[in-house]
Design a protein that fits this description.
alpha/beta, single chain, Arc Repressor Mutant, subunit A, 2 domains, 216 residues, Rossmann fold, 56% helix
Length: 216
């Protein structure tokens, strides 16, 4: 019996590419699709999915937060993240939240299909580079390689990403369903952790980081 795959991706062209990939892969079939976290949470229960393929950078609730919700309410669904964001920054976060693997969008279709098969078979999937990094961290030999952005909490990173996409404080608060004061606290924490002097530097740093992820 074919394994059922649910897709959560906000870009229609990319989502259609995933649909075609699943339709052509042996032993896989499409369970459903969603353009954002809210749609995913509304539809995935009835879809009877075996695995959800999730973009980490979604409008509204982020992929990381979606993973936490799915783990709590649909623990039977395996979760695999695919993203344009550097796996060094996100892979460990999503794995801690409950995902079983992380694949960069720059990888080939063959690698993504392989990742789906491996997660369905009960294994975890990250790139060879990420495996080596995790091993070095486990033995305590990777302390000098971390980026300042890695020190941000999941929610701080989400605020940082929204700043980089051009959202104002009030818009971020509405998107994340938190107070303006909480957003301002996150912004202050981010500036401190990244050693940034003011709001302009924070915005510029965030925009460069988001554009770098999209270019990748």
């Amino acid at each position: 019996m074919a394994s059922r795959i649910f897709i959560v991706e906000d870009h229609p062209v990319v989502r259609e590419g995933f649909v075609r990939m699943i339709e052509r892969a042996a032993g896989l079939e499409l369970a459903g699709q969603a353009a954002n976290a809210a749609e995913a949470l509304d539809r995935i229960g009835a879809a009877e999915a075996d695995l959800a393929l999730i973009d980490v950078a979604l409008p509204g609730m982020s992929g990381v937060e979606l993973i936490k919700h799915l783990q709590a309410h649909h623990p039977e669904v395996l979760l695999l993240v695919i993203s344009s964001h550097d796996e060094v920054l996100y892979a460990e976060r999503v794995m801690r939240s409950g995902a079983r693997g992380y694949v960069m969008k720059s990888e080939s279709v063959e690698v993504l299909v392989q990742a789906i098969y491996e997660v369905l078979e009960g294994r975890r999937f990250v790139s060879k580079t990420m495996q080596s990094r995790m091993l070095r961290q486990f033995v305590g030999k990777d302390e000098d390689e971390s980026s300042p952005i890695e020190r941000l909490s999941d929610r701080e990173l989400e605020v940082f990403r929204h700043i980089g996409t051009g959202l104002a404080t009030r818009e971020i608060a509405e998107t994340m369903d938190i107070s303006i004061k909480t957003v301002e606290t996150y912004r202050a924490n981010i500036k401190q952790k990244l050693d940034l002097d003011d709001a302009y530097q924070l915005m510029r740093h965030a925009v460069v980081w988001v554009e770098g992820a999209l270019d990748g």
